[in-house]
What does this fold into?
Amino acid sequence: MLSVSEPLRVLIVDDDTQFRRRLEAALEADGISVVGSTADDEAATALTSASHPDIVLLDLDLQSGSIPATSALIRAVPGARIVILAASDNAPHLFDAVKAGAAAYFLKSRPMNEIIVALRSVRAGMHFINPG
It folds into this structure.
């Protein structure tokens, strides 16, 4: 089990470059280690295997689809928790992502500090769904 004194290690998978950069800056400013960042779910699987993040933040709206990506990432690093980020609260694949193993769902429009609190909750073993 991960000690809460160890830095939280996060991988960001999102095809919105501006959002990814803002999120990375907010996480690092809060002492969270961003071990990788990519717009591509195939690269995410390789990065997950190489960096062993505690949490993978995964965009629900990836062009290749986040449901297969969720399953692939869980297989790559079984201990990693998947947190889905979505642009809207009526995302049709939310429940499929949770069934595939995602531990949390969060809207991209929420304040960064709320996303950070959610990540810490997920790290503690909680599931977190906040549609807005």
The chain has a mean pLDDT of 82. The first strand starts at residue 9 and ends at 13. The two ends are 30 Å apart (CA to CA).
